[in-house]
Amino acid sequence: MNRAAPHPQRPIVQRLRMRYAKRGRMRFASVRDFQRSLERALRRAEVPMAFSQGFSPHPKISYVPAVQTGVASEAEYVEIALQDRRDPAEVRAALDEALPDGLDVVAVVEASGASLGERLSGSTAASRWQISFTSLGSEVVASAVEALLARDTLLVPRTTKSGRTELDLRAALVDAHVHDEPVNGSSCAILHMVVRHGTPSVRPDDVLAGLRDVAGLAPPLPPVATRLAQGPLEEETGTVLDPLS
Amino acid sequence: MDSLFPRLEPLLPRVTKPVQYVGGELNSVIKPWGDDAATVRWALMYPDAYEVGLPNQGVQILYEVLNGQHDTLAERTYAVWPDLEALMREHAVPQFTVDAHRPVGAFDLLGVSFSTELGYTNLLTALDLAGIPLHSRDRDTSHPIVVAGGHAAFNPEPIAEFVDAAVLGDGEQIVTAITDVVRGWKREGRPGGRDEVLARLAAGGGVYVPRFYDAAYASDGRLATVTANRPGVPARVHKHTVADLDAWPYPAKPLVPLAETVHERYSVEIFRGCTRGCRFCQAGMITRPVRERSITTVGAMVDAGLKASGLAEVGLLSLSSADHSEIGEIATDLADRYEGTNTSLSLPSTRVDAFNVTLANELARNGRRSGLTFAPEGGSERMRKVINKMVTEDDLIQTVATAYANGWRHVKLYFMCGLPTETDSDVLQIAELAKEVIRTGREAAGRRDIRCTVSIGGFVPKPHTPFQWAGQLDHASTDARLFTLRDELRRDRNYAKAIGLRYHDGRPGIVEGLLSRGDRRIGAVIERAWRDGARFDGWSEHFSFEQWMEAADRALAGTGVDVDWYTTRERTHDEVLPWDHLDSGLDKQWLWDDWQDALDAASGEAVDDVEDCRWNACYFCGVCPSLSSSIEIGPTGRRLLPLEPVR
């Protein structure tokens, strides 16, 4: 037997938390697409990633649940472990440069306190969303949202790894309101909402399915959803707090 | 030229893997559309799905070469999956490039790289979606000039109606020459229309324009002549050979996709061509002579390519990478340089000898020794003699035993089924070999949990090889032989779990054979199959053998020839082959003599092996004198500097 011992990896000396955005056409990147891009960008940006031990070492990066393919976001988070210390601001600029346009690094801070997972998952956390209905006016969307809010519960089906389950969409909906914004010269309905996280969390397509169920809302063009923020939910005000602060 | 993206975007949430259509890859280039008279615009297509097409070296090289030129732009387009095709038809969105989402129909040239004939129907889909008439004769000056390249273009006769031109061999220099001709013609205000620019391209003998040649058939159905039908068009068209690979260090900035693709690594071609003389191997025959990239250029490309891409794996590519004159130094120096950086190095290890194991050990110095691949190709000693694969059973067993003794757990062995003169017993020998590999391997490794996978594909005779005259084995016989092998491997309980078998049924090989050695009459078959729905023929979930056979029956009715005639029929010495007017540099008589040697070897006559001309005497295949090219190999005696890579 003549097997080379695996190269020992150096220990972790720093953890950085990063907020990134998925904008424009990059919203079609899947979670796995982003993960591959991030690992390559870390190499290009010469960020000294820490690796797991063993025969096939992989970078020590902690992910939290991200938006689904096709949904844009201004507020996605990961935590990266480093084997040398780096200035967070420099890492932010270098990583942003190394990632494709549209995958943009918004902020990088040194990790401290409760983990990202603790701050972003479960019913104490929430997301603020925006859904743009490029082909509908605000009145029709607003009346559908009213019908939805008038319900006590609204169950939507979801298939997970452990089988089919049902989520209570109405219970997760903390707040929802609709207004008009001009887009390309015509008016476009924008739905703003705050949705409580869960296991699993209610997603924008669940809300669209709910609006179809309760009010027959059927947009002729696919609406574009964007996560504007996520973090701990301040119950009294319904405000979504910054998970990096 | 406006972007089609706003029209495409609403369709994307409704298709699988939409990210493949959005572009934005690292190192992709978007140049301004430019002045119409001065700018030459290429759309480069790999006629398969994005995940297969994006890593293609040929397209990436030409993309970089063309975009490096003034007043020239190149963008890429790939085959769209049927779900998006249907939506594009419904919403009248034409075939687009992924770079700036410009309509393919607006470009001056559409260059299509065919690694395999199974991409032909995807070309038709792209032409149709682009609004380009399917047939060359129906196009006018507003349509792109459709140029085929890649290995399948060495016999473009089956797609002669659909392409305007075909180019044989290395593309690095000829794309620029074509660009210059097109630019000149555009600047002059496109005199003489499409025929004029095609005539200018054809004049030098470096670009084949099928419509300037007429094919005539004899009463027995065989091809009689292919002759030029226009003054100034040469009788034969020659292939292109780049002389100094160090002068063309591409891809320098590899495209890094967001989407997952079939190869997630930075590939460096360490040499081009192969002179080992395996008689079945079209790639080895048509890419001669061997031209090495020097150790120092390879080292510089790896360094720059990794920095430009952030990729974590390097592939050292060629047709037989262990044959580079300084491969040992390349492997050692790269392994030294990247030690401790979590960068993995690999080479397609197919040569069956102990040195290959040493190389693999070196490259996997820091990582797991998982799988090693060897390609004996033929199961019996007799078969290997027929194909000129000079590996004895002892060589193979010794090599594999060395691999297991060095800690490799899994060995893959590649074979072919349906080689000329093959019988059931030749294929059954594969089972004996595999069992012997496991038996010896268990002894050498001192453990029982080693594995061996036998991978076996149906042999398809290809143009420009000594086997171009051979009859292809029919699919029923191929399948029967593969099943016999499978049953034999399963029978012995002592080995059944240690030996895996991977094979494909013989039917796709018959369509590939039909397209590979077809003549212009096959164009109608391709079009019929495509109209009946054939798409993505290289994908088993899309391929329909029945559809193709039905299309062939209808399209070939009245010609006196059929699928068997093209595939399972052995050709005679005097037969005019559809690609005889296309010069790969190989001497047809040498190919024939080599074919006769194979048949003699099959019947047990003593026949000299064709020894590699890099280390032995020239065997007069004809390439060097006819193309004024020569072997370019080291050693250079240089070593790689110990650069300081990122840790």
Summarize the structure.
The complex is a heterodimer of chains A (245) and B (647). Chain A is of the alpha+beta class and 245 residues long. Chain A has 6 helices and 11 strands.
Please tell me about this protein's structure.
The complex is a heterodimer of chains A (about 240) and B (about 650). Chain A is an alpha+beta fold and about 240 residues long. Chain A contains 6 helices and 11 strands. The longest helix of chain A has 14 residues, at about 30-45. The model of chain A has no long low-confidence stretch (mean pLDDT about 95). Chain A has 2 domains: about 15-110, Alpha-Beta Plaits (2-Layer Sandwich), CATH 3.30.70.580; about 120-240, Alpha-Beta Plaits. In chain A, the strands form 2 sheets. In chain A, strands 1, 2, 3, 4, 5, 8, 9, 10 and 11 form a 9-stranded mixed beta sheet that branches. Chain A is elongated, with a radius of gyration of 20 Å. In chain A, helix 1 packs across helix 2 (about 90-100) and helix 4 (about 140-150) packs across helix 6. Chain A is about 25% helix and about 35% strand. Chain A has helices spanning about 30-45, 90-100, 115-120, 140-150, 170, 205-215; strands at about 15-20, 60-65, 70-80, 105-110, 125-135, 155-160, 165-170, 175-185, 185-195, 225-235, 240. In chain A, a hairpin with a 2-residue loop joins strand 6 (about 155-160) and strand 7 (about 165-170). By secondary structure, chain B is α/β, with parallel strands linked by helices. Chain B has 2 domains: about 5-230, 3-Layer(aba) Sandwich (Rossmann fold), CATH 3.40.50.280; about 265-505 and about 580-625, pyruvate-formate lyase- activating enzyme. Helix content of chain B is about 35%, strand content about 15%. Chain B contains 22 helices and 18 strands. In chain B, the strands form 6 sheets. A 5-stranded parallel beta sheet of chain B has the order 2-1-3-4-5. In chain B, helix 13 runs parallel beside helix 14 and helix 14 (about 425-445) runs parallel beside helix 15 (about 475-490). The two termini of chain B are about 45 Å apart. The chains are: A alpha+beta (about 240), B alpha/beta (about 650). The interface of A and B includes residues 4 and 100 of A.
